[in-house]
Structures are given as C-alpha cells and as structure tokens.
Design brief:
By secondary structure, this protein is an alpha/beta fold. The chain binds adenosine-5'-triphosphate (ATP) and magnesium ion.
C-alpha cells in the first residue's frame, strides 16, 4: 500500500527533476561518440543537412505558386523559370529521402554498437563488485534497472539526435513566421504548450511507477523463469505447481496493470483536453492567414508557405516536446545505469602486499566471528585454529554449521565481523585481493553447471588455458572427468546442458567430476574442495580421493565432506558445531576423545554394516 501512495506523491509536476536528469546527456553523447567517431559524425552531419530541407521545400513551393499565379495572369507565358523551380524541388525531395535513410541506418548501427558495449559494461561491473553485494537485494534492483533499459538507451540516442535536428528545423521555420507575421508565434505556443506540460507530468509518474515496482518485476521475471524451463520442469509437473505459479504471476502482474491503467487513462483524458485547446489555436492561426491573404496583405505563395510552415512547426514542436519528455524519462533510467556502473567496490584495505612465493607457516584463524550482512545471528562465534603449510585439513559438522561460510571467509568473499585470518603471519586483508584469490584451486558445493562445452566447463578453472588441451586432459585425469569425456559422443567439444541444440545433460556425479577438474586446472598452492564427491559412487569417490592425496603432495588443502571414509584420510579434522569448534585433531585422536565426532562416525559406520 505504501508503494501506491508514494507513486501518487511523486506524480506532481516536476519539470526540475526532468531537467536534472538531462545532466547525464553530455556523458551519454560522449560515450556514443567514442563507440564509433566516424559513424557518429556522419550521423550528425546528415541530420543537420536534413534539418534544412523543410524550410527549403516550403520556400521553393512558395516561389513555384507565386510564379504560377504570375504566369496565369500574364499574356506572354515564359515557363523556363518555373521548370527550374520544379526541378529544384524534385532534387530537394530526392536528397531528403536519401539523407533520411542514411540517418536511420547510422542510427541503428550506432545503437547496436552502443548496446553491445553497455551490456558488456554491466557484465563486467557485476563481476567487479563484492560477493556480499551480489547477495543484497538492493543491488539486484539496481542491476535490474540498469539492465532493463538497454533498448531504451538506444532509443535515447536517436531521440537526442533527432531533437537537435528538430531544433534546427524549428528555428529556420520560426524565422520565416517572424518575417511574415509574429502573431502566429503566440498562437503556435498556445496550441502546444498545454500538451507539453501534460506529457512532462505523466512521464514522471510512469517512471516512478516503474521504479517503484522494480522488486515486483524481478519477482515476475523469476516466476516466469521457474514456470517454464528445463531445470524446474520436473518438480513443477510432479508437485503440480503450475497453477500456483501462474496464479501468483497473474495476481502480481494484475496489480501492476491496474496501477498502470489508472495512469494511462488519466494521461489520455488530459491529453485529449489539451489537444482540443491546441486544435482551436491552430485554426485561429489558419483564419488569420486566410484573412491576410484575402485582403491582399500577402501573396497566395505566402499563404501556402505560412500555412505549411505553421503546420510543420506545430507537428515538429509537438514531437519535440513529447520527445523531450521521452528523453528526460530515458535519462532518468540512464541515471540508474550510471549509478550502477559508477558504484565502487568498497576497498577497505589498499596495502596490496606481495604474497609469499611459497607458503611457509600456513593459515592462522584468530577468534573469528561472522554474521551475514542481512542476517540476525552469527554463523561463526569465535573460531580459532590453524592450518599448517602442506597440511590436509577436513571440516565436518552438521548442515548449516558454517563450514562453507568459513571457506568464503578464507577466500575473502566476505570480511569477518570480528577476528582475523593470517597467512604466514600477515592479515589476509593486507594482500592484493586478486592475487590472493589466484592462489586457490576451489570447487564449490554449489558449483555452476555451465551450459557450454565440456572443454569450457573444465577450462573455467583457469580460463587462460582454454586452448591448452594437455592441461585440460591432465586435470580431467586427476578428477576422473576423463571417463566422462570418453563417454560422451563429442568428447571435449560436447555441449552440455539442454539449453542449446545437441546439448547433453549429464548425471549429478558426472557433473561433479567435471567441476572437480576445475580445481586442478591451475597449479594452485591451496586446494579447497567443498563436498566434491557427494554425488560420486563409492568406487569413484575412493579413487578420486586416492588421487587427490597423491597429487596434492606438499599442497595445503581443505576438504569438506559428510563421508567419514573421506574425512579420515585428512591429516587433521575440525568439527564445527553451533558456530564454534567443538573438536579438532587426527581421526584416531578424535575417535578416542571427541564425543561429537565419534558419534557421527559410528552413526555412519552403523549404516554401512
Ligand atoms: N549468503 C547467505 N546469507 C545469509 N545467510 C547465509 C548465507 N549462506 C549461508 N547462510 C547461513 O549460514 C549458516 C551456515 O551456512 P553454511 O553454508 O556455512 O553451512 P554448511 O556448514 O556449509 O552446511 P552444509 O553442510 O549444509 O553445506 C546457515 O544457517 C545458513 O542459513
Ligand atoms: Mg556447505
């Protein structure tokens, strides 16, 4: 309800806000110029030339009519002059057509190039911000608003340039009107100004409406997505969710529709009223021109020139005004786009220390506390331990104990709320972040199944090696992904996922083998595997770990797993419970002295008997 209220609050006439939004235009135009200076310049030139043609056409038309009247009334007919004028008019018309086509061609070429560039900018920007930002709904709203208007920005381009063109047209025609009859200017303004005010007023409301509904639109998109795609289809069918989803979609979009309808109706009602006033003044002007011709103040040619000019001026000015509101409306969205791409990733520490060439001591965790930005309770409530260089560490604990969170802190996706992590005695925040993260080979619990080729799915672990088949095959050997490559019809080039033609869906375990290969793609000194084998069969899991242990000699590693057959192979095991370390030690030590570990282990062992 509060939303509806705020929209009507904002719908007050707000020319100032519109004008303010225009501040972004110089930057916008500069960006487009940079996209392709040659095209841009030629576009502007053709627009300026085209802007001069309406005046020229009308003027030549006037000369032709005056000449005709002259010839009709004279006894000796000399038509040469007339034919020259007609020829000139024809030439102007052909020229106008060509140049307008050129303008719209360069418009669309420039627009395409610019839209590619902004999409790339948005993708890059989204990659640049912190993971913690990505999990924030406000950020998503901003992203959505930036993304949504890509096509709008292209329209904005031709609108802005078209506006400049029309200003030239209008100035040239106004000069003609002033020359003949300055009063016409007053009538002209009277005929279009009310409509303009109306446009500005409503364009603001429609922007506010659409902005106010960003979150709902995001939900609508999401519902549309889960309602119809291969990933969710199984559950939607089996749980019979389609009417649940479509009802929800309908309800939500209907209330948006209602708000929008209210606005559209009001816009049109007022629009009709103002158009009526406009038409009256227009006919006032017409009457004035006719009267002056009849009493002989101006010639018939002047009459056609003036009524033609007036008519064109009216349509041009109207289109300029409505274009003005469209421009400022798009500029409001442009604001959102710039707000998004200008936001800075918060850099709390800029020391950018060099990383150790080789890890000597390892990691130390000092009284680590952590709470997710929008959460109420702490996930980690004071965790202290260490991982020695070259040690193989396992994290265990119940679901939600905070194992994956601890990994995210090590990887610096989040900052601890208190306490710190040291690498070789130095707070990890003091190292260059990108280089620090480069040290890790990681497979996440919720790894991504890219609907790309098998080769690309492995190479994403270190995309620079995408063409290095040897490296890719070596990594797949270590992770057992080699078996998958040998199984699928097209080997490494096999497209995965169902989105594209000839794509192949893999089993859960096959995907996991491929994801595991990513961790091996670079020769990282620290390996982190968050439940890398949960979907593997018993034989494959055993084998994967044998290889892991053998291949990571001397490397520091962390494994998270719920399977004790895996966990027991680690040098030391850390048991997390309720945000604290409940036990830490080797498998044997923990079996002897640690209750939680012993209980969990025996529970699982019993299950296998
Ligand atoms: N992005 C997030 N934002 C807010 N809370 C989160 C986020 N991710 C996880 N949590 C919460 O933090 C707690 C710890 O989650 P975490 O993923 O670290 O558990 P885990 O030990 O890895 O569990 P599992 O064995 O199920 O993988 C959970 O209570 C979860 O609800
Ligand atoms: Mg987890």
């Amino acid at each position: 309800m509060s939303q509806l209220k705020s929209i009507s609050d904002q719908s007050q006439f707000s020319l100032r806000k519109n004008l303010q939004a225009l501040n972004q235009l110089p930057r916008f135009i500069k960006e487009i110029y940079k996209v392709n200076p040659l095209l841009f310049t030629s576009n502007v030139t053709s627009r300026v030339l085209s802007a001069l043609t309406p005046f020229a056409t009308l003027w030549v038309g006037k000369l032709i009519i005056d000449e005709i009247v002259l010839q009709v009334n004279s006894s000796t007919k000399t038509l040469d002059h007339l034919w020259i004028l007609v020829g000139v008019e024809l030439a102007i018309i052909i020229f106008t057509d060509l140049i307008n086509r050129w303008t719209s061609l360069t418009d669309s070429l420039l627009g395409d190039q610019y839209s590619i560039q902004t999409s790339v900018t948005i993708i890059n920007k989204a990659a640049e911000v912190d993971i913690s930002d990505l999990e924030n709904s406000e950020f998503y709203d901003k992203l959505e608003r930036a993304r949504q208007q890509t096509s709008g920005r292209v329209g904005l381009l031709s609108n802005v340039l078209g506006q400049i063109q029309d200003i030239i047209v209008v100035l040239s025609l106004v000069a003609g009107l002033i020359y003949f009859s300055p009063w016409l200017i007053v009538l002209l303004l009277l005929s279009i100004f009310p409509g303009f005010v109306n446009e500005v007023k409503f364009s603001n409301s429609s922007y506010s409406l659409s902005r106010g509904w960003t979150a709902e639109r995001r939900e609508l998109d999401y519902l549309r997505y889960i309602g119809a795609n291969d990933k969710t289809a199984k559950e939607i069918k089996l749980f019979n969710l389609s009417s649940f989803i479509s009802d929800r979609f309908q309800k939500l979009s209907y209330s948006y529709y209602l708000e929008n309808r209210k606005l559209s109706i009001r816009r049109n009602l007022f629009g009709a009223l103002y158009a009526f006033i406009g038409t009256l003044s227009y006919y006032g002007a017409y009457v004035l021109i006719i009267y002056r011709t009849v009493i002989g103040l101006i010639s018939i040619g002047d009459l056609t020139f003036l009524s033609g000019s007036f008519n064109r001026l009216k349509t041009r000015l109207e289109s300029m005004f409505s274009r003005f509101t469209r421009i400022s409306e798009s500029a409001l969205y442009l604001n959102d786009y710039y707000e998004f791409i200008d936001q800075k990733a918060i850099q709390k520490n800029n020391e950018n220390l060099e990383l150790p060439k080789k890890i000597k001591e390892g990691f130390v965790f000092e009284d680590l506390h952590f709470k997710y930005p929008e959460a109420e309770t702490e996930v980690l409530k004071g965790v202290s331990f260490n991982i020695k260089a070259g040690e193989k560490m396992a994290f265990v604990g119940e679901n939600g104990a905070g194992k994956s969170t601890l990994i995210k802190l090590i990887l610096r996706f989040y900052e601890p709320t208190a306490g710190r992590i040291l690498l070789d005695g130095i707070d990890i925040r003091r190292y260059d972040k990108a280089k620090y993260q480069e040290m890790f080979g990681v497979i996440f619990q919720d790894f991504v199944k890219y609907e790309l080729s098998l080769r690309e799915n492995i190479a994403v672990g270190k995309i620079a090696y995408i063409d290095d088949e040897k490296k890719i095959l070596a990594a797949s050997d270590m992770s057992l992904a080699k078996e998958v490559i040998d199984d699928v019809p097209e080997g490494l080039s096999q497209k995965l996922g169902k989105r594209f033609a000839k794509g192949l869906e893999l089993s859960g375990g096959q995907w996991q083998k491929i994801a595991l290969a990513r961790a091996y793609m670079k020769d990282a000194p620290v390996l982190i595997l968050d439940e890398p084998t949960s979907a593997l069969d018993a034989r494959a899991e055993y084998e994967a770990f044998q290889r892991f242990i053998g291949l990571t000699e001397g490397k520091t590693s962390i494994i998270i797993s719920h399977r004790f057959s895996t966990v027991r192979m680690a040098d030391r095991i850390l048991v997390l419970k309720n945000g604290l370390i409940s036990e830490i030690g080797t498998h044997e030590e923990l079996l002897q002295n640690a209750d939680t570990y012993k209980e969990l282990f025996e529970l699982q062992a019993a299950g296998y008997q």
